[in-house]
Amino acid sequence: MRIACIHQGYELYGSDRSFAESVAALRAAFPLADIEVVLPRSGPIVEILEPHASRIVFEPLWVLRRQAMLRLATVEMARLPVALWRAWRRLGACDLVYVNTSIVADYALASRLLPAKALLHIHEIPEGVLRRILVGLMHWSHADLIFNSKATRDTFGEPRSARSYVVYNGVAGPAAPEPMTYDGKRPLRVLLLGRVNRIKGQEVLLEAIASLPAELKSRIEVRLVGGAFESVERERALAELVETMGLGGQVSALPFIPDPSEHYRWADIVTVPSRRPESLGRVAIEAMAYGRPPLVSAIGGLVEVVADGETGWHVPPGNAAALAAKLREIILAPEAWRGFVAAGRKRYETVFSEPVAAAAIAAIAADKLKAAIARPDRTASTRQAETQP
Q1: Contact (CB, 8 A) for 188 and 330
Q2: pLDDT on residue 270
Q3: What is the pLDDT of residue 387?
Q4: Do residues 120 and 139 lie in contact, with contact meaning Cβ atoms separated by under 8 Å?
Q5: 38-42, 67-71, 73-77, 258-262: lowest mean pLDDT where?
Q6: What percent of the chain has pLDDT over 90?
Q7: Domain Glycosyl transferase family, which positions (predicted)?
Q8: Side-by-side strand order, sheet with 251-254
Q9: Could you tell me if residue 123 is left (phi over 0), alpha (psi between -120 and 50 degrees) or otherwise beta?
Q10: How far apart are CA 331 and CA 290, in angstroms?
């Protein structure tokens, strides 16, 4: 049995970890399968993929990123025929091709020729022109689709010529939540973990903190952890904004690290003040796994992750005043949210843990592979060999 897993990234942010967890789920379900992982280049993700992949290859992929659309429509267009040919060959040679995210355009296009072999896993909520392109591309592919939330499915719509599923991302977490130690007598430790970009809302959190009265501002400590995708300028601009707003004493801008567990253990709460829709919200899920209530924007898949007033809090997106008011409540009344720790951990284990997602991904893949193995061009001996556990 041959399975190919395609991913557009190479770091260890949310979509990268979700991809690695899907590969691990496929390996656990099909231990003797030949699983080839395709990445655009080497990076931190390779280390966590190696235990599950038969091999990892690095090939150019035709990836639809918003900031690269002009280049793709001009100079990169010459690469598309070769990329399509490479994707079509791999689809023909494999029993299943699992493609992570909708922006890997060469595989989505090639899937139209062999849709029975393609499984596209969508983890993003695009906007504007890119949304129209990706929605059209996914429907045109005729491949089966996995959406990581109901919000993502609503963005793309149900395909007419293929099956679709909603499977929440399975997230690795600690064996038990960390104890909550905040009692209002020391500064509240607030973590924002994520890429530095126009979506994540780092500047909204900074504006909220800057607006607090001096007495409350002195009772809060913030870590902004993360880097910008191939953009040192964005990272430098964020650090400069902290200083310009006079928040150097409260806010630390720290670089991305592959394992953020030390930051979750440090935090009392975790903020996800996204300005634009998140397809799900992995950081909010990880926060609940660690026993750190998440304070999130009420937008996209985040409202599916966090139960407002039970496991965390919702605030309107892009509203610094509302965020500041909620931070004030959290600082002044820690006893009011102490029960969020246990409730959030229970929600994580029930809905978002790795075993729950892995079982769903494996079942969907097995269903497609049954059809592939039953194709008449396969010999009886090959079928028997490939279906051995």
Answers
A1: yes
A2: 98
A3: 40
A4: no
A5: 67-71
A6: 80
A7: 188-347
A8: 251-254, 220-225, 188-193, 269-272, 294-297, 313-315
A9: alpha
A10: 20
Average pLDDT over all residues of the chain? 91
The predicted model gives 140-146 an average pLDDT of: 96
- Residue 112 CA, distance from chain mean position: 26
Q: What's the pLDDT score for residue 147?
A: 97
Residue 246: phi and psi, rounded to 5, are 70, 30
Helix-helix angle 282-289:340-347, to 10 degrees? 120
Domains by residue range for the chain, with CATH: 2-170+353-386 (3.40.50.2000), 188-350 (3.40.50.2000)
d(CA 353, CA 364): 18
pLDDT confidence bin for 376, thresholds 50/70/90: low
pTM greater than 0.85 (yes/no):
yes
